[in-house]
Every structure is written in structure tokens, then in C-alpha cells.
């Protein structure tokens, strides 16, 4: 009897300490919509089952990826099963049999108890985000160097504020290899970003294989190696073209597939009609003039190079290029540039002036509209849609593409009222090539401008004062990483993180649910984990 009493007391004490174990703080970025911490932890160990329910067809990729990432992250091999294998000590990923309208296409619910973790969603994207949340919930334990991995008990309901949550990478000013591009995509996936904007062409290098125009990568992808970006001097005839690179079609397919598995769409950008020195170095016949264009080296401003909009071969060139690009990228949107097209050459080019006259256009701006419209029609024939920088926005614009707003909310509001969809990436909050602290204290040379972490965190993609009727046109936002001063993966990592966390929370979490103080604590935890 005495023994029985002792046994009961011991069991009670054990049960109590089990359920009241101090939980780790929950430091998920972006902040979930609802997160109710509960007592206790779920312990992931070598006996933990990972189970899947209602996963079918192509979603099997999801199971493979979870299995793989789980091994990678926890250094454990999970026992796999379905719902019937789940008795205790399991993590279940289940697609809802009946759609849960409250969480939409990308949301999920998570129930963590000491016995199990149950993640439910309407889609595998939702389950993938649930998995990212589970991983982040273990971060503090990782910093404690503990082998045991604990997930604090909680109930979470989560879904994004915006459908478009992006990050851009300029691979023209400096080239980044496939390995780094995948790392960038992994970082995006960690923070539930879902659109990778790949800036593949610019004055400083053409980075995508196009079979019909081989000179683009034979010549247009290479320039002399210079130590600094500070001074521009023309390329000398004897200088070897040793800096550069490009992605083969196979590499592009590999990256698109890699991103798709992580629920990230890839948006290629072919910059039209300016920022084209690399094209003109390879195909000088597409210029308005006879200037000896080279792939640009160092600061090149203002970029005078522009393709001749009066030359029918230029239209054919762009259509051919876009056709090959469209085949490589399954996402319906292709970015066709349109920014900073300095049209001085068009003003004095007989062919461009002839086009303006033939088409009854008002001026050179209208000529650019006309050119972009030709290419939008071509994309439409290919089953694709265009994204264009906001330089094209005006009160009387005739264009129905999605507008990417880098210049601020004014253009965004005009475009939205006009009926165009809009993606926000204003220089005020989203240009992560700008300084992140006082330049005097900064080791890294940056583009002039200051976006501290706090400033980045203040970003609200919804332009102030836009009436409710037009708000549906604001699809979301993205950060931009222009790489004039970013030569290496190490520098790119330094510039993008942790500001990418601020961007992620700004596009996922409701503005009034954001909390700068809490965010700083979370970032500290994430940073410790990354080290
Ligand atoms: C841009 O920064 N010119 C899009
Ligand atoms: Zn011309």
C-alpha cells in the first residue's frame, strides 16, 4: 500500500513536471495570425513518426522534401507513416478533406501538444509553411547545443496578408552561381516568401542562355575584372573579359524546379528597352547609333544604351527571346523591365522618329508604351502576362500589365485606380542594397540611402489613402537586392539578412499585429541560430 502511494506520487510528480516543463519562447518570423502558447513541449527524437494524410499526386514531392529537410535539420531519420501509424510521438501533416475557408490557399493550423504535432492545411503550400514554423519553433533549443529538440506546445492559426511575397536578386551587376541562388531561395522559403524575381539582364551582363542569339552569352555575359566599382573607365581593347557567367537552360530548369518544391515561383526579368549595353556589345546592329557599346564596367550613369524601337529586327529579337524565356519558366508572369529607359537616342534616330510618325504617337514616352504593348501582346499569345516597372505609369496609360512600384505610393495609387495590379517595392523601405546603418560605421560599401532594420520593418505594402475599392489591386511586396556593390555571396548574405525578416513580416502579418520590440527579440534568436 505504502509502495503504491509512493508510486502514485512519483507518477503524479512526473506527469506534472512533464506538462509544466518550461516552454521555449515562440519566435516565429513572420508573426503568425494567432498563436496561443500552451504548457509543455513536444520532443522530437529518433522514435518520432512523421505521417502524411491525404497527400496525393504531385504533392508526393512535398513528402520527399519534408523527409529530406527533416533529416538535414534534426540530424534524425524519421519513421514515415500514414494516420494509422500515428499513436503517440508523431508529427502529422494532413491536407484538409473539407476546405477550411478561414486559412485560404497558403494558411495552416498547427496543434503542438506533448504527444504530437498536427499540421493541417488546404494545400501542400500551407503544410510546407507549417513545417517552416515547426523548424523555427525549435531555434532556441539549437542555440543551447542540445541534441534533444523540443517544440513548445501551442495552437497556431496562420495565413498570409498578401499573396505576393517576393525577393529580387540582380545577377547582372555581379554574377551569383547556382549554389548561391539556391541558398537565396532557401532563405526565402524559411520566411514564407513565394516569388523570386530574378533580374537576369542589364548593362553589366546578360545571364541567360538564348539559343537563337548565342552572342548574348558568348560576348554579353563577360566583362573585364575590376577591383572596385567606384570608377568607370572604358573597356580597353587589350583587357581580358574574365568576369561574368550565365545560366544554361538546364541550370535554369534546375533552379525553377528547386524553387517550385519550396512553393516559390520564379519570375525572370528581361530588361526592355534600356539597360541593354550587354545586348548591344553582342548585337550592335540593334542600337540607334554606331557607338561602340561594351558590357558596362563600374558605374554607368545615366545609361544611354537603348534598343532602337524603330528597327523591326529589334521587335523580332525581343519576341524570340521572350519565347525562349517563356518555355523555361512555368509561372505565368514575365518581367519585361521598362525602367530608366533614357530615350535621348530615340529623339535623334530617324528610324525611331519614323515609327512615332507611322503609328501616330505623341512622343518618345508613347513610343516606349507602344513597344511594351507589342511585347505584352506577344506574351499573351504565349499564355503569359507582363510585369513592368512603374516608370510607365501615367494618368492616361493604356497598359494593363502588373506594375512593380519602386518609386513610391503615388504611382501605385494611379496604377491601382487604373485597374492594374501592383507589386510594391519602394526605395524608401525595400532596397536592401542601401546602407543598413550609419555609413560611417559600415564596413560594406553600399548604394547611397539608408534603410535600417526598423525602417524596413515599417513597410506597409498598402499605400496610405488608397480607397478600399482599389485595394484588391495591391498584390503584395518584395525586397530588391541590386548588386553593384555586392560582389560575393558573403556580402549578399550580409545585406539581405536580417532585413529580409522585416520584409517577410510586412507582407505576411497584418500591420496592426506587427510588434517592433518583439520582432527585435525574434531576430536576435534567429541570428544566434544561424551562427
Ligand atoms: C529601379 O530601381 N530602377 C527599378
Ligand atoms: Zn532608333
Provide the descriptors you would attach to this structure in a database record.
binds acetamide, 21 strands, binds zinc ion, alpha/beta, 7-stranded mixed beta sheet, 531 residues, 8-stranded parallel beta barrel
Q: Quick recap of the structure?
A:
The chain has 18 helices and 21 strands. It has 531 residues and is α/β, with parallel strands linked by helices.
Description:
Helices cover 36% and strands 19% of the residues. Helix 5 (178-190) packs parallel to helix 7 and helix 9 (312-328) packs across helix 12 (364-381). It is α/β, with parallel strands linked by helices and 531 residues long. It contains 18 helices and 21 strands. The protein has an 8-stranded parallel beta barrel, surrounded by 5 helices. Strands 1-7-5-6-4-2-3 form a 7-stranded mixed β-sheet, covered by helices on one side. It has a two-stranded antiparallel ribbon with strand order 10-11. The structure holds acetamide and zinc ion (ZN). Acetamide binds at residues 339-340, 389, 406. Acetamide (ACM) binds next to loops.
Strand order of the largest sheet: 8-9-14-15-16-17-18-21
Mean pLDDT: 93
The residue ranges in which pLDDT falls below 50 over 5 or more consecutive positions are: 12-21
Using the alpha-carbon principal axes, give the shape: elongated
Intertermini distance: 54 Å
Residue share in helices? 25-40%
Name the beta content range: 15-25%
Q: Counting H and I runs of at least 4 residues, what is the number of helices?
A: 18
For the report, how would you describe the main beta sheet?
8 strands, parallel, barrel
Question: Which secondary-structure class do the elements indicate?
Answer: alpha/beta
* Rg result: 26 Å
Distinct ligands: acetamide, zinc ion
- Counted beta strands: 21
